[in-house]
Amino acid sequence: MHGEWLDIGPVDQIAPGNARTLPVRGGEEIAIFHTLDNRFHALVNKCPHKQGPLSQGIVHGGVVTCPLHNWNISLKTGEAQGESADERGACVPVIPLKVDAGRIYLLRSAVLGQKAA
Ligand code: FES
C-alpha cells in the first residue's frame, strides 16, 4: 500500500535543535530538522553554496547555519538569507513535510523527485 505521504518515523527520533538525514536511493540525501519551537522541516541536504551538509549545521529560529561557510538557509523556503551577490537567489529544494499523530511524513512524490535525473 503506497499513500501519498511517506512515513519516516516518530517525531521523537529528532531532538529539538537537531537534524537527521534520510538517504534516498539513487538520489539526494534529505535532511529533516526539528526546530527549538517544535517545528519540522525537510530540505535536500546540500547547501546551495558549495553543497555543505546542512544536517550538520546549527538550527536557530527558522534557519540552519551551514557548517562550512556559515550561510543561513531558511528551513521554510530553502533560500539563503544573506545579502551577498552569491547568496541572493540561492536556494535548496524543500521537501513538503507533515506531522500527524506523532509521526513525520514526507510527500512521497517530492522524495522520489530527488532521484538523479
Ligand atoms: S557550503 Fe554552505 S555556506 Fe558554503
What are the main properties of this structure?
single chain, mainly beta, four-stranded antiparallel sheet, three-stranded antiparallel sheet, binds FE2/S2 (inorganic) cluster
Describe the protein in words.
- By secondary structure, the protein is mainly beta.
- The protein has one helix at residues 108-112; strands at residues 5-10, 18-22, 30-34, 40-44, 58-60, 63-65, 72-74, 94-95, 97-100, 103-107.
- The protein has a 4-stranded antiparallel β-sheet, with no helix packed on it. Strands 1-10-9 form a 3-stranded antiparallel β-sheet.
- It binds FE2/S2 (inorganic) cluster (FES).
What is the gist of this entry?
The protein is mainly β. The chain has one helix and ten strands, in the order E-E-E-E-E-E-E-E-E-E-H. The model has no long low-confidence stretch (mean pLDDT 93).
Distance between the first and last residues' Cα: 26 Å
Radius of gyration, whole Å? 14 Å
**Structural shape:** globular
Number of helices: 1
- Ligands, ions, cofactors: FE2/S2 (inorganic) cluster
- Please summarize the sheet with the most strands: 4 strands, antiparallel
Uncertain stretches: none
Quote the average pLDDT. 93
Q: What is the number of beta strands? A: 10
Protein structure class: mainly beta
Widest sheet: strand order?
A: 2-3-4-8
Order of H and E elements:
EEEEEEEEEEH
Strand content: 35-45%
What is the helix content? under 10%
Please write out the topology.
Blueprint: E1 5-10, E2 18-22, E3 30-34, E4 40-44, E5 58-60, E6 63-65, E7 72-74, E8 94-95, E9 97-100, E10 103-107, H1 108-112
Antiparallel strand pairs: 1-10, 2-3, 3-4, 4-8, 5-6, 6-7, 9-10
